[in-house]
Structure formats: structure tokens, C-alpha cells
Write a structure and sequence with these properties.
Structural class: alpha+beta
Number of helices: 11
Helix content: 55-70%
Radius of gyration: 41 Å
Shape: elongated
């Protein structure tokens, strides 16, 4: 191949590469609502902390549950014993009244295995274990509440972003009409058909719309950055947004059952159960401690060296027994622990009631907002249909020479404004439906979008 042919082939390859690169970047990225929800759940550091809190709470529960099992210990000792009391007539050593050696000074080794089991844990510590179990369950619901908060925030941001995109799309179309009106008025002014004041007004309208477009773009940029903080993804200026389709009605739900199933309510409920367990633990702490124990001893001694004392170590005694300990006076510590638990129960009852009222108010607000927007949407639909009919009549009149081009453009501008408001209202209704579904049944919502994996333990 000649040198010129090589350069030509390389040039063609570069052109093909540039065309492919330009085409691949000409397709705008589409932001889907479900992807934004999934990305935010996976990216959130606060949610990851809540997940670790579940693991910590579970470890605390297992740590306290382990107290219900018996304890077994083994201990050994090797020492050099020197009797410095020269007036002592003792010529033997003993462990628990058992004679084990007969040297005043010697190397001694001893080992014992001891086990103890508190029977009283089954009516005392079991309530403390129950407390940590309920607190672990509460941490699971706290994780679910954090997940719900993240989704609610992302849904609101997504709605604002889609609204901004709709405004930008229609603002660009309205600007085209305003620029066309300005062009026609300038030409007509040159012919003496319009005053200079009319031209200045048309210029002001076009400039005002350009300023509005710049403002909308700034808002979209800020909203996109806010959403990036939740999802960890970067959104470019020409990122398209999935427009949600409203169903027109909220899912049927029984309010009381829905509130009781909410994680915010379950948190308070589990905390209440945990405090009741604490109160029972304080009450039963007044009962005696009962335990059984056993100990097995091995011993040897040698006046010569440690090796002999260790090699011939032998069993010397064992003991088993039942230990009962009854608290008589502790300065009132157990009394006030029970008092504190009773006060905490009362406070938690009010907290539970406040949470119920708060969530009931939130559901009522969503229902009222959805109803108002639905009426507004119906009103916009009628007006939009009327604009469509007026446009059709005006275009026919324009063809007959009875209406001017400017009249058609002005009417199209007003129709676009109404259609924009209709689309924005449509998206607002869809966002309300998402928020209501999130409040009504979080588990179903998570199953629909990410499989409900985040807060499992």
C-alpha cells in the first residue's frame, strides 16, 4: 500500500470514529424513577449506619442471651511458697479442709474447674434479654423509617426535576412564538403597520422569556445536584426525566391498620414493649438469686523444684452446692429503677399517641392534596380542550384572511401555557400517588422497586 493510501485510510477511520462518538453522545440519558429510588437506597451512608445499628443491637441481644447459659471456668497456678513464720508449728497445707501437702516451704501447683448456673436468670435476666430483643426489633424499624425518608425525599426531588423539565420544554416553545411575533412586528413596523411601542413590548416579552428559561435551567441544575447527593450519580444538562403516569385514584387502605403497620409507629411500639420488659426486670430483681455450682480441684507440691510439683499433680477434692442470695437493702436502687421504668412507660404511651396522630395527619394531607389537584386537573383538561377548538377555528379563519399570523401565534402561546400547567399538574398528581403508596404500605412499595433487602438481618 502506498504512503498516500495509508494516510487516506487513517483519515477515513478517524472520521468514522468521530461520527460514532458524536452519535453515541447525541442520545440523551433518561433518568427513571425506579432507578433513582434504588440508587439512593444503595448509596445512602445514613442507611448503611442504620443497617450496622441492627447488627450492633443483635450482638447486644445475643450477648445478654448468653447469660442464660451456665458458665464454666478453668484456672491454674504455679508458685513458690516460703514460710517465713519460724514460730509456726504447721507442717501441712490444706484446700477446703482437705490436707494436700506437708511442707512448710515448697513449689506448689494447683488447678480447678468450676461451673455455675443461675436458675434465677429464668425469672430475672430473661426480662433483660427481652428488652434487648425488642430494642433490636426497634432498630430494624428505624432502618425501615430511614429508607422511607430517603424514598420520600427522592420522590419530592424527582417531582421537582420533572416539573422543571416540563417548564423548560414549554418555555422553549413559547419563546419560539414570541420571537416569531417580534420578527413580524419588526417587519410590520418598517411598513408603518405597527408602532415602535408595540415592537418594544414584543422585545420585552421575548427577553423576559429568555430570562425565565435561564432561571429554570439554574433551578434544574440545583435540583440535579441535590438528587446526585442522594443517588451518587451525576446528571448532565440534557438528561431526560421519566414522566410518571397518574392512575387518578389513591389505593384503598384502612387508615388505622396502615398507621399501625408504619415503621415510625412500630419503632414506638417496640420501644414500649422494651420498656415494659425493663419494668418487669426491675420488679423481679427483688426476688432471690438461686444458683447451683460445682468445683473440682487438683493439687501437688514439692520441696525440690517446680517440675516435680507439676508432673505429679492429682485430684484432691470436689464440691457441689446450691447458693441462694436474698437482697435485703440496697439504698433503694431497685425501688427507684422500677419507678423510672413506670415513668418511661407513661412517656412512651404519649409518644405512641403523638406518632399515631402525626401519621394520621400526614395521610389526611396527602388525600386532601390529591383531591384538590384532581379537581384542578379536570378544570385544566376542559380549558385545554377549549384552546384546541379555538386554535382550529382561528387557523381556518387565518386561511380565509380573517385572522392575522400574530393572532394565531398569541393563541398558540396561551395554549402552550395552559398545556404546560396541565402537564405539571399531572406530574404532581403522580407524585402524590407515589407518596401515598409509600405511606400506606412501605413493604409493598419496596418490593415493587428494590426487593426490600436493605433492612434484613
Amino acid at each position: 500500500m502506498s504512503e498516500g493510501a495509508k494516510y487516506k485510510a487513517a483519515f477515513i477511520l478517524i472520521i468514522v470514529f468521530l461520527i460514532c462518538f458524536i452519535r453515541s453522545n447525541s442520545y440523551a440519558e433518561v433518568l427513571v424513577y425506579g432507578d433513582a429510588v434504588n440508587d439512593s437506597i444503595r448509596y445512602s451512608a445514613n442507611l448503611q449506619m442504620k443497617i450496622e445499628d441492627i447488627h450492633i443491637s443483635h450482638a447486644q441481644y445475643r450477648e445478654n442471651f448468653a447469660g442464660l447459659f451456665p458458665t464454666i471456668n478453668i484456672a491454674a497456678r504455679a508458685e513458690r511458697y516460703e514460710n517465713i513464720d519460724r514460730h509456726s508449728s504447721s507442717t501441712y497445707d490444706a484446700i477446703g479442709n482437705e490436707i494436700v501437702g506437708g511442707y512448710d516451704s515448697a513449689w506448689r501447683t494447683s488447678t480447678y474447674i468450676m461451673g455455675q448456673y443461675y436458675l434465677s436468670h429464668w425469672y430475672k435476666k430473661i426480662f433483660e434479654v427481652s428488652y434487648y430483643k425488642k430494642m433490636r426489633d426497634s432498630s430494624v424499624h428505624q432502618c425501615e423509617a430511614e429508607t422511607k425518608k430517603i424514598i420520600r425525599d427522592v420522590t419530592e426531588i424527582f417531582g421537582s426535576l420533572s416539573e422543571g423539565k416540563i417548564k423548560l420544554q414549554y418555555a422553549a416553545e413559547i419563546l419560539k412564538r414570541l420571537q416569531e411575533i417580534l420578527r413580524i412586528k419588526r417587519e410590520a413596523f418598517a411598513l408603518g403597520q405597527y408602532s415602535y411601542e408595540d415592537v418594544l413590548k414584543a422585545e420585552a416579552d421575548a427577553a423576559g422569556m429568555e430570562k425565565e428559561i435561564a432561571k429554570i435551567k439554574k433551578e434544574i441544575s440545583e435540583i440535579s445536584l441535590n438528587l446526585s447527593g442522594y443517588t451518587g450519580s451525576r446528571y448532565i444538562e440534557n438528561t431526560e426525566v421519566e414522566y410518571l403516569v397518574p392512575t387518578g385514584k389513591l389505593p384503598l387502605t384502612e387508615e388505622k391498620a396502615a398507621i399501625v403497620a408504619m415503621p415510625e409507629y412500630k419503632i414506638r411500639q417496640k420501644e414500649m414493649e422494651a420498656i415494659r420488659s425493663k419494668e418487669k426486670a426491675a420488679t423481679f430483681s427483688l426476688l432471690p438469686d438461686i444458683s447451683i455450682y460445682g468445683r473440682y480441684d487438683l493439687y501437688n507440691s514439692s520441696p525440690d523444684n517446680l517440675d516435680r510439683a507439676f508432673n505429679d499433680i492429682r485430684p484432691v477434692s470436689y464440691s457441689v452446692g446450691l447458693l441462694i442470695s436474698l437482697p435485703i437493702f440496697d439504698g433503694g436502687a431497685k425501688f427507684w429503677a422500677r419507678k423510672r421504668a413506670n415513668y418511661e412507660i407513661r412517656r412512651q404511651e404519649e409518644n405512641l399517641r403523638a406518632t399515631y396522630e402525626e401519621k394520621n395527619k400526614a395521610i389526611g394531607t396527602l388525600q386532601a392534596g390529591h383531591e384538590a389537584l384532581s379537581k384542578q386537573y379536570t378544570h385544566y383538561m376542559r380549558i385545554n380542550e377549549q384552546y384546541g377548538k379555538m386554535l382550529e377555528i382561528s387557523k381556518k379563519a387565518y386561511d380565509l384572511g380573517e385572522r392575522s399570523k400574530i393572532d394565531i401565534l398569541e393563541l398558540e402561546k396561551d395554549a402552550l401555557t395552559m398545556e404546560r400547567d396541565l402537564k405539571i399538574t399531572e406530574q404532581s398528581i403522580a407524585i402524590y400517588e407515589k407518596q401515598f403508596a409509600l405511606e400506606a404500605d412501605l413493604n409493598k412499595y419496596l418490593r415493587d422497586y428494590n426487593g426490600n433487602w436493605a433492612c434484613k438481618h
